[in-house]
Specification:
It is a multi-pass membrane protein. It contains 4 helices and no strands. By secondary structure, it is mainly α. The model has no long low-confidence stretch (mean pLDDT 88).
Length: 148
């Protein structure tokens, strides 16, 4: 007859050494979640509750915000944190529900490649955005654009 181990007995599996990616992923999710709450509510407050509210949002408003380094970095930080947070969450769900190792590995690589591509594309858009495009109607442009 086999005896059942005492449930209060310490687990005797050998400890792994090295970087614990799951622990750091867990910590990242908590820290980025708190930062995202601050960034998102700040974004919503400025866009919807100040000035004329939602009626102020047009190309000139966005162009004015994205011409400021402060708002560029605010938006890029929000973009990076959100995409990495989302990709890490999708990785966790994939690890939980995909049982075939090859499929799981492929999906996780695809998740991170798509996240990296979107981060690169979004960062380029924010930092290369021209709020004063040539040939645009003057009434759509921000006040700081010269009418030429």
């Amino acid at each position: 007859m086999t005896a059942i181990a005492d449930p209060r007995a310490p687990h005797t599996a050998p400890r792994r050494t090295g970087l614990n990616l799951e622990k750091w992923g867990w910590i990242y999710m908590r820290v980025s979640g708190v930062l995202l709450i601050v960034l998102i509510f700040g974004h919503l407050f400025v866009n919807l509750l100040t000035g004329e509210g939602i009626h102020q949002i047009d190309f000139a408003f966005v162009g004015g915000k994205l011409s400021s380094p402060f708002w560029q970095w605010w938006d890029v930080l929000m973009l990076w944190l959100a995409l990495i947070h989302g990709a890490n969450g999708m990785r966790t769900v994939t690890n939980d529900y995909v049982t075939h190792n090859g499929v799981r590995r492929t999906l996780i690589w695809a998740i991170w490649l798509v996240a990296a591509f979107l981060i690169l594309l979004g960062t380029l858009v924010v930092f290369t955005f021209d709020p004063c495009p040539a040939g645009a109607a003057a009434n759509l442009l921000p006040d700081f654009c010269s009418a030429s």
